[in-house]
Amino acid sequence: MWTGVGALSVATRTISSMGEVFRGSEALRDGMLTEHQLRRWYRPIFRDVYVPKHYQPSLRDRSVGAWLWSRQRAVVAGVAAAALHGAAWIDADTPIELIAENARPQRGLLVRDETLDADEVTQVFCLPVTTAARTAFDLGRHLPRGTAVARLDALMRATSFSIDDVKALAQHHKGARGLRKLRAALGLVDGGAMSPSQLPLLRGRQLVAVFDLGWEEYKVAAEYDGDYHRSDRRRFVKDIDKLGIADDQGWIVIRVVSEHRPDVIVGRAYRALTRRGWRPDRHQRAALSHFLTLPSISA
């Protein structure tokens, strides 16, 4: 377990100010709130960690809260770390994974007691977070293969982490669980020509919006519908307008939510692309075979 807290720790109130997240016991101790005020105006997101009652915490806020709950001893890891590194398609209510001493389970937290070296930790938004390579190492070991590949692809687009660095971590942590799963997932990361990228949506010469993922040649795009429809009405309305413009221009837009399994998403993209004339080559068929069993995928 990583123990280099002193090098990264900052004052609790300073880091809490990022999102109105605080430890209830500290607020009571310091006379900032009474017990009545705490119960009336705030709600817990983890044990002894509170936010204002009507505040919708972001994933960053919840990561701060998880770190505060650990008494600033833990390191944010896994999917939450990937999100903090900039990986897309991760909802605000995703469980926060920590590397720390084991603790009593609680909703929204996943705590792993694992070996973590000091050079496998960095700072993101003033939080101790696993490096991109270590994050990839954990995603590939702990997630089902299809989900792991999707998460690793998103992390690769955000950070361009080195697969060789991840393999070096596997060599260093020879006794870690899930190394066979990790190696299988790493072999599928970044499917080359099959891998989509962000794509601008234009009306004439005017930039209207940017698709989360898209294949311009085939006019197929994918849009992730996150939790913002509850917290950011302006963005929600803007995305509806974007879909209308895309439809007028003949785009097929695949809408994705966090509950969709990777095989469902890949299947929809495959069917949309093949309707528009795309045919996978041998390497792409091999990658698709890990997600789909379709008669139309043939040599």
General description of the model:
This protein has 14 helices and twelve strands. The protein has three domains: 1-130, no CATH class; 132-190, no CATH class; 195-288, no CATH class. It has helices at 5-8, 12-16, 24-29, 35-41, 59-69, 78-84, 132-142, 145-159, 163-172, 179-186, 228-231, 233-248, 262-275, 282-288; strands at 22-23, 42-46, 49-52, 75-77, 96-99, 109-112, 121-124, 127-130, 197-203, 206-215, 220-224, 252-256. A hairpin with a 2-residue loop joins strand 2 (42-46) and strand 3. The chain is α+β, with helices and mostly antiparallel strands and 299 residues long. The strands form four sheets. Strands 9-10-11-12 form a four-stranded mixed β-sheet, with helices on both faces.
Task: Output the number of helix runs.
Answer: 14
Helix content: 40-55%
The tally of beta strands, per DSSP, is: 12
* C-alpha-based Rg, rounded: 21 Å
What portion of the residues fall into strands of 2 or more residues?
15-25%
Largest sheet features? 4 strands, mixed
How many distinct domains? 3
Low-confidence stretches: 1-19, 191-196
